L-rhamnose isomerase
Amino acid sequence: MSDIPAVKSALKAQVIETPSWGYGNSGTRFKVFAQQGVPRDPFEKLADAARVHAATGVAPLVSLHIPWDTVPDYGKLRAHAEDLGVRIGMINSNTFQDDDYRIGSVCHPDPAVRRKAIAHLLACVDVMDATGSTALKLWFADGTNYPGQDDITARQDRLHEALQAVYARLGPEQRMVLEYKFFEPAFYTTDVPDWGTSYAHCLKLGPKAKVVVDTGHHAPGTNIEFIVALLLREGKLGAFDFNSRFYADDDLMVGAADPFQLFRILHEVAKNGGLDAANGVAFMLDQCHNIEAKIPAIIRSVMNVQEATAKALLVDLDALRAAQAAGDVLGANAVLMDAYNTDVRPLLAEVRQEMGLNPDPLAAYAATGHAEKIIADRVGGTQAGWGA
Ligand code: PSV
Ligand code: MN
Ligand code: MN
């Protein structure tokens, strides 16, 4: 039997980080459908993120993406966040939107381009210093489109050199996390295509470098929970970018496409200590809301992560281990499925009430009138979006 008070305290202590870019307009390469009331600058993105935290009580951190969230005074942005009751989370670098990066950034054959990319990464660490952020999140679009285009090994050497320069710049309380993605925008080779490549680089760098698992960045059929279990075992799971996908990097709301997969991932996380703050795993959302309302979509995603976490925490580990030790294949599977098939919504409603929150976060948000207010207030100026 599960210890319900312990499950509840774990749920109350959970921290889910939301992405600043999730609040802005986004779309596909075919069309961006602009929505009314979306933030016009990073200050307004934080204001929206604060609404998600107010409704859910578990989303106090907001990831920034540089240069999308560039401001003249980061101290002011940090103070604004703190006034709103949230904090700046990870700083995401961007070495994929500059013309100079056509054939790569840190892996580019031209040392001048590499120097420019490294300078950006170091500038991101300056942003961490100014905002109080403790983690730099790196994703590189680097790769090649055609066999023979560049030397695979030489690109790995260049990558290592760049990562080393950034690692050396980290302060004692700062760390870096390296994200992988199996393809796109490069179609033949990607320089960090999988967890193994990220892990190998992080291992060489040292304890302040860990791997990011973006749930949308794997080939179909990949067993993501196995990767998660292995990285946790090695002490190298740094963060999640949660989203869901039907086909490729769809960036849909987490838990929408495959809630069972999310449960299986969180079962490995919960069982192996990944929810303990001391382990330092960041639970971030990396989603783009192309047609749905942004703030409610992020609230829904937070709730989906909470539901999967609650189910994972309800797994009767004693019964599971006993069945496993006895070789009881069906019994062990049944223990897991019992937890997954539990309706945890009443438990989460209780948890929210005990936290002084409305048991229904979406209703709580709707009742604030924020959605109507931002449509009225945020007219004029350029509305921020993915890349703005
Ligand atoms: C790349 O597809 C990615 O998942 C990285 O995390 C980027 O920083 C993010 O998307 C941008 O939306
Ligand atoms: Mn990502
Ligand atoms: Mn992605």
In short: The longest strand covers residues 87-92. The beta strands are 16-19, 61-65, 87-92, 135-138, 143-144, 175-179, 189-190, 209-214, 237-242, 282-285. Residues 32 and 58 are 30 Å apart (CA to CA).
